Fold:
Amino acid sequence: MYADYKYYIQDFKGGVIPSAKDFLTAEANAGRYIEHVTHRRVVGNVTDDVRNAVCAIAEIEYQTKVRNSKNGIVSESNDGVSKSYAQETSESVKLTENKKYSFAMQYLGHTGLMYRGV
Structure:
């Protein structure tokens, strides 16, 4: 865990994620994303830049989860018992990934953690 809900509210000044429980899930996903884009260089090197990046990406993760849960059923037939579900388009997935990478670069680009070389 890179940031807790207290850090998210008090230091990051977050307001998108409404509860500590929702934050835990979003933070875990954001942490895995940060580990991926930093090539696991953040382990043992947790700074406020890392915490802020995790919090920003956690907000995106939470918003994506909420958006996907609202998409759900787009049409339903009662007698024939038929349901149609909305799906994320490749464009929305690409936009979300670009936002996450942009926040990672904003907070970590100057740290060298995202450098792909040796």
Notes: The CA atoms of residues 3 and 48 lie 9 Å apart. The chain has a mean pLDDT of 89.
